[in-house]
Design a protein that fits this description.
mainly beta; 11-stranded mixed beta sheet; Pectate Lyase C-like; 25 strands; single chain
Amino acid sequence: MMNKALKLGVSVLLIVCEVVVVQAQKATETIKKTMPKAQVLLIDNINGTVEVKGGKGDKIGLTATKTIVGNTQNDVNNAKDKIDLVIFRENDTLVAHIKAPNLTYGRNRNNQRGFGYEWDDWNKQKGYDFKFDIQVNVPENTHLIVRTINQGDIRVTNTKASLKVTNVNGSVYLENIAGATRARTINGQLKANYTKVPDQNSSYYALNGNIRVKYPKSLSADLRFKSFNGDFYTDYEVKQLPTKVVSKTASEGRTKVYKVDEFTSVRVRKGGKVFKFETLNGNIYVNRNK
């Protein structure tokens, strides 16, 4: 008996899928301006870095690199004229801010120097994104207000006047400064290095990041600090101050409510101006300049 082998041929169907990758389109532009000095300079960025350098000159020089990234070239072209850096002067203040669709800039009582953005349907899909990386050279005695939100750090060097610096998703670096300071970031590090002890109260806040501040050896001040998940470190000789008890009258106007201050206070030398440090997730370092 002959055995017959039956071979079954397996037919394999190969399906070749062609993957089409749509590459984002990009355009860049460099903006350069030279302007007379101002008592106050306000830089109000949204996406991108801001770097300010102080010097001996009497002019303000600004260079901004505008970058637009779109889904298509048409998206980029449509955005070119809609996105811009606007500069204007009002009284003693020179203001630089971003112009974009669904965004209004002007007087706002809730913001420093009375200027700020109003967001109108900002999250609407636009088919493009943008950023401005801004570099500014200023006379060293210019008072500064510097803000950005995403995609960049803020860096200020070699200035002597007051600073108000705010970032959201980025770090703040202040190097060789001397003026009273209010510095704040949400997601980033905060570092400051002083050539002179500020002559006014100052404050430093980092929600998720470390705070590192260096003052001259001659520091005499009261330091107040608070960190939920972190510690306070210093190489100054300090004396702990009594915990403050804050009182206020309840809403019905009859009862006084007493609350223990959440900040710990220490004194360096004879005390003086109050420097306040606060972070949620991070350590606080206050040290001497070497």
